[in-house]
UniProtKB/TrEMBL annotation:
Sequence ranges of Low complexity compositional bias: 1-24
GO MF entries: anti-sigma factor antagonist activity; DNA binding; sigma factor activity
PANTHER family: RNA POLYMERASE SIGMA-E FACTOR, SIGMA FACTOR F FLAGELLAR
Pfam families referenced in this protein's UniProt entry, alphabetically: Sigma70_r2, Sigma70_r3, Sigma70_r4, STAS_2
Name of the protein this chain belongs to: Anti-sigma factor antagonist
Domain STAS intervals: 297-395
Family affiliation: Belongs to the anti-sigma-factor antagonist family.
Region (Disordered) location: 1-30
GO biological process: DNA-templated transcription initiation
Alphabetical UniProt keywords: DNA-binding, Sigma factor, Transcription, Transcription regulation
InterPro entries: Anti-sigma_ant (IPR003658), MlaB-like_STAS (IPR058548), RNA_pol_sigma-70_dom (IPR014284), RNA_pol_sigma-B/F/G (IPR014322), RNA_pol_sigma70 (IPR000943), RNA_pol_sigma70_r2 (IPR007627), RNA_pol_sigma70_r3 (IPR007624), RNA_pol_sigma70_r4 (IPR007630)
Highest taxon, organism lineage: Bacteria
Length: 395
């Protein structure tokens, strides 16, 4: 064991001398410092010829002997917002690391242990105590500002101003203000801290206010998806009315219809959106004959003997391409025709889903041995069909 040397004394009594030996401890007010360098050298000599499994006892003795030294280093950093017990635990961890890494050929164990323990304590402050990331330059300046403020308060008998602190440290006032603001990030208040009293309110309940835009995010996302289910004209009217701030008269003039008709279309679209948002599955949209849009898909099928003519009109997109697929496939597979002609003369727009529908019809025609032809395609549609590899089906 490592420790202070015991002293002996001889007690005399009566007619003889009694050789009673007692151990005298140092007076309570006398501070005994550990000779860590000698203890470390003795530890190194003790484990020199020991296998790794036999060094544990010597290691524990040296760590136990140096614990007061680690405690003194930890107490230097008390009063900085961390419990002393935590600092002592961190210091002891640094002491264990110093003992495990000690090499007597590199110099004094006391100096090495002090550097290792202090470094572990500073790392604890850097990694565990700051609520936000603050540059090291500002952290050092925060300590200097605190010490200078305390010194000036004692000298002036009042709190010093920012200019006085900056003058003492020879630092611009902007950096002093930045340091004071950053100091608030050392130990930020928890949003879950109770406010006090008998209420169950927390500190976070008092911060900020209700954000109506944030509360309506779900509704906005839902409406955005439902708008794509409406016909093109209704979508356009809603956009012009609520995003373009146009009057019903201006919208009516744009579409060539009456203002009363615009009012009915708006009311019907809004009613459908309201019902769709309140139900798990959106209700179907029923189009009346008077509401037909020239851009809607129109399909006419005529059979003459073994020949079938399918005439299309309007734009073909993802909302109606399923009708095109169903019509062409049924025309090819029903009644064993020899030829099916698809007229595209009144189709101004054909997107990828429409091309996919025609490709499905081509595959059905190939499997049944029916000849499929595309006629009257406008330039834009013809170009899309060429890119899709359907040029050989066109006249």
């Amino acid at each position: 064991m490592f420790g202070p040397t015991a002293t002996t004394s001889t007690v005399k009594g009566g007619t003889g001398t009694a050789g009673t030996t007692t151990t005298t401890a140092p007076p309570p007010n006398e501070r005994v410092l550990e000779d860590l360098d000698s203890a470390a050298l003795a530890y190194a000599a003790r484990i020199a010829d020991q296998p790794p499994s036999g060094r544990q006892a010597a290691r524990d003795d040296l760590v136990r002997f140096a614990l007061p030294f680690a405690g003194r280093l930890a107490r230097r950093y008390r009063g900085r917002g961390e419990p002393l017990e935590d600092l002592e635990q961190v210091a002891r961890l640094g002491l264990v690391n110093a003992v495990d890494r000690y090499d007597p050929e590199r110099g004094s164990f006391t100096a090495y242990a002090a550097i290792t323990i202090v470094g572990e304590i500073k790392r604890h402050f850097r990694d565990r105590t700051w609520g936000v990331h603050v540059p090291r330059r500002l952290r050092d300046l925060i300590l200097e500002v605190g010490q200078t403020t305390a010194a000036l308060t004692s000298e002036l008998s009042r709190a010093p101003t920012i200019a006085e602190v900056a003058g003492r440290l020879d630092t611009p006032q902007e950096e002093i203000l930045a340091a004071l603001e950053s100091a608030a990030g050392y130990s930020p208040a928890s949003l879950n801290a109770p406010v006090g009293g008998e209420s169950s309110a927390e500190f976070g309940d008092l911060v900020g206010e209700w954000d109506n835009d944030l509360e309506s995010v779900d509704d906005r996302v839902t409406v955005s998806g439902l708008l794509h289910r409406l016909p093109w004209r209704e979508r356009r009217i809603l956009a012009m009315r609520f995003y373009g701030n146009q009057t019903q008269a201006e919208i009516a003039a744009r579409f060539g219809i009456s203002q009363m008709h615009v009012s009915r279309l708006l009311s019907r679209a809004l009613t459908w959106l309201r019902q769709a948002m309140l139900n798990e599955a959106p209700p179907p949209w029923h189009t009346s004959p008077t509401d037909a849009d020239p851009r809607d898909l129109r399909v006419t099928t005529r059979r003459t003997g073994d020949h079938v003519l399918v005439e299309l009109g309007g734009e073909i997109d993802r909302d109606n391409s399923h009708r095109l697929r169903q019509t062409v496939v049924e025309a090819v597979t029903t009644g064993r025709p020899t030829e099916v002609v698809v007229g595209l003369g009144d189709v101004p727009l054909l997107d990828a889903t429409g091309i996919a529908a025609l490709l499905a019809g081509q595959e059905a025609a190939r499997s049944t041995g029916v000849q499929l032809r595309l006629t009257g395609a406008q330039p834009y549609v013809r170009h899309a069909l060429n890119v899709a590899g359907l040029a050989r089906l066109m006249d």
